[in-house]
Amino acid sequence: MSVRPRLLLVAPTVVQYLGGTETVVAQLARRLAAHAELTIVAGRTGEPPRGPALDFPHARIELPFAGRDTPANRRLVRWLRLNPFRIESRSLFRALDARGVDLAAHDAILAFYEHDAWLLASRAPGVPRLHLLPGVGHRRFFRRVDPRDVVFLGARGAERARRKWGLEIASLPLGVDDAFFPRRPRTRPDSMRLAFVGRLDGSKRIDWLADTFAASDLAARGYVLDIAGDGPLGDALARRHGATPGVVLHGRRTPAEIAALMQHARLLLHPTELESFGLTLLEAMAAGTPVITHELASIRAWAGDHPTYAAHLDARAWLDAIRGFEDDAHWASVAARNLAFARGFSWDAIVCRVIGLLRERGVRVG
Question: What does the longest C-alpha to C-alpha distance in the chain come to?
């Protein structure tokens, strides 16, 4: 009888938050659980958990940590002058040490954040490691972390490492869940629903989007802005736009509800200023829903010209782009092209590649 390998996934935010990274972790973990004994290390704050459903066989180690939205994190940012992501990682690993978790008891460790990978290098030097990262900020990262243990999710990180540092780092594409693909051919919805899906924080500029919608004539013309997600701007949005005509605040929704929302939307609006995976855009394309977003290198690197790029925080440009999709032929052409593009991405195929990378490191994954 074969023995399943013991894999440890270090994923500080996967229980507490819901975003692109957390979705990636959950999708990979769900499929890896069929091949290994899986343990997930996750952080918990005093707030209710909002992460994706982890409804598959696994063990979990939950530890207190200073999550990015907590008062403790903000105080430490001011005091230590470190970024909130580094503080998250340091606080989690401090709790990991205090709990006495034996990292060497595992056959391999997977990490998804740059700072976690940095800390693991000194805490688990003899354990095979695979760091699935959206990117790396500094060349000195590779003084401690072997580049051969790093795989970038998305093409941007690999291109940057090659251009800036002359390093050839492997990369994997994003993945999309099958639930997002429509069961029948999409036609442009009669309802004029515009969707925002994501974390309600400043970097996503949902505050600007809601204000722009409210100040326009879109609601008077029949448009509705559906906002799905939660985060630090949730209460402020509710106070400012809870009664705004045409604005619907859905709060946090399950993946199945998000897929249904995408499939009934006319457009996805994604005015982000900071993006790592860009998974929401891919999910919209898979649903056959055209996307309007800002042109960021992290998006264009994998999505090319499939999204519609509107000028940065330019209300007129965004409104013109929305109105451009009132043309049936234009909507249908973009939706069909994006859907065909998205069909090239599959979580099952990506996990097969992850398993292959683990085997290269001597981990016997079935």
Answer: 67
